[in-house]
Specification:
With about 475 residues, the chain is mainly α. The chain is built from 20 helices and four strands. The structure holds arginine.
């Protein structure tokens, strides 16, 4: 086992306690960021005159070489070192001797680990954003394919009003566009250089932190060294953005589990994205969607775990903070995998127009009947009562509006006339909507064009079918 602090102690660390505290097995994922940060630190030491220029140059060259080796053979990032920072320093000392031992001058692992995680999120968040945009693109493709197809929208999970199938798909695209922006906020929050904070009080060397921030591509420097040593707000913001995105994927999954199910069958899952039963030959199960729904729990758990870790910490760095990384990596992996599989499932969906349209007809046109009466001068509350009584009668007789004769309509209200039959249909209901966020076909096609333009803009690629 290698540590950076053995000088203080009479004996070697207890093996089990050391193993308990060691983090290389998961923070090796920060290798690239750790080396990147160290290259910039070596240059900053050189600029500050702490190291002669040629020694800073040798350190930089050796670190670049280390980066190349680590990238070409990731399995080499391993050993009995306490953490990734120790690992990198050990390799550097092996290669350069005392020059390697000078790299940590004026620097602490407390700020280094914060730096690494910030750099990591800065390069990984765009990957998640891209995967989210790809799901949005797949939903937009399904919306475009659906054209003027109809389905019921639900409230309280009871059929509520007819909508375009395209409107339904876009209702799942829009939250993911918000998630994309939320991930961008997490990236912005991580975008501050913590170096120069030292272990807690700052550094006694004349490091130009603004220059160092520019060198590492940060837009600003943290404001307070004590705060910086334990600030993981950016990690919590990231976990919140991941959890929120998973919540949206989970709701989409739940909708598809139900609406592809035998009771509805508005959509059909691709065979390749379904699973069978070991016993019941007829089963076609939506396992990938159920897993996304299930994994949302652990992603929310990562956020709650970090917040719980943070809430009781006394001022400054505490080792509890090491718990941030497994939460961040776990949320990232779960979200990336889930976005990928949801994209595949959405890409493989087929629409059963007849079933979906049939479910959009019937008593869920009651609001349109009431609006018809309002259009002829009846106060809405009164119209609601008249139509409610009509619905009560139809339910008792097992019928719907389409079966009413003109005499029956007029028995309910003499404001009904011969035009009523063609006015009370799902297509007319949808076309009657007037607001830009509604299911009116014109509004939906405007929204669809906006969503597609957004996908093109954020991915630099047009989704299929434009
Ligand atoms: N592995 C540690 C972490 O993740 C690195 C920082 C260690 N600092 C310390 N003072 N022990 O937080």
């Amino acid at each position: 086992m290698t540590t950076l602090w053995s000088g203080r102690f009479d004996t070697a660390p207890d093996a089990a306690a050391f193993e308990f505290g060691a983090s290389l097995r998961f923070d090796r994922r920060l290798f690239e960021d750790d080396v990147t940060g160290s290259i910039a630190w070596a240059r900053a030491l050189g600029r500050a005159g702490v190291l002669p220029a040629d020694e800073a140059g040798r350190l930089e060259d050796a670190l670049r070489d280390l980066l190349r080796r680590g990238r070409s053979d990731p399995s080499s990032i391993d050993g009995s070192d306490e953490d990734v920072h120790t690992f990198v320093e050990r390799l550097l000392v092996d290669q350069l001797g005392d020059s390697g031992r000078r790299l940590h001058t004026g620097r602490s692992r407390n700020e280094q680990v914060s730096l690494d995680l910030r750099l990591y999120l800065r390069r990984r968040i765009p990957v998640l954003q891209r995967a989210a945009a790809d799901v949005v693109g797949a939903l937009a493709d399904r919306a475009a394919d659906a054209g003027d197809a109809l389905m019921p929208a639900f409230t309280h999970f009871r059929p509520a009003q007819p909508v375009l199938v395209a409107h339904f798909f876009l209702s799942h695209a829009v939250p993911l566009i918000r998630d994309h922006a939320r991930l961008a906020l997490a990236r912005d929050e991580a975008d501050a250089l913590p170096l120069g904070s030292g272990a807690i009080a700052g550094t006694a060397y004349a490091i130009d932190v603004d220059e160092l921030a520019r060198d590492l591509g940060f837009s600003r420097v943290v404001a307070n060294s004590i705060d910086a040593s334990s600030d993981r707000d950016f990690a919590a913001t990231f976990l919140y953005a991941c959890a929120m995105t998973m919540v949206h994927l989970s709701r989409l999954s739940e909708d598809l589990v139900i609406l592809c199910g035998d009771e509805h069958r508005f959509f059909e899952l691709a065979d390749a994205l379904s699973t069978g039963s070991s016993m019941m030959p007829q089963k076609k199960n939506p396992d990938p969607l159920e897993l996304v729904r299930g994994k949302t729990g652990r992603t929310i758990g990562h956020l709650v775990a970090l917040l719980t870790t943070l809430k009781g910490l006394p001022t400054g760095y505490n080792k509890d903070l090491q718990e941030d990384k497994e939460a961040v990596f776990g949320a990232e992996d779960t979200l990336l995998g889930s976005l990928g599989v949801v994209r595949l499932v959405v890409g493989g969906l087929t629409l059963n127009r007849t079933r979906a349209a049939a479910a959009a007809s019937g008593l869920l046109l009651a609001t349109d009947v009431a609006d018809y009466l309002v259009g002829r001068g009846m106060p809405f509350r009164r119209a609601h009562e008249v139509v409610g009584a009509l619905v009560r009668k139809l339910v008792a007789e097992g019928r719907d509006f389409a079966s009413l004769s003109l005499d029956e309509w007029r028995a309910a209200s003499d404001l009904f006339d011969a035009a009523v039959a063609e006015r009370i249909t799902p297509a007319v209901s949808v076309a009657a909507k007037r607001t830009p966020q509604s299911t009116a076909p014109g509004a939906v096609s405007t929204r669809l064009a906006e969503v597609r333009a957004w996908v093109t803009n954020v991915t630099g690629q047009e989704s299929a079918g434009i």
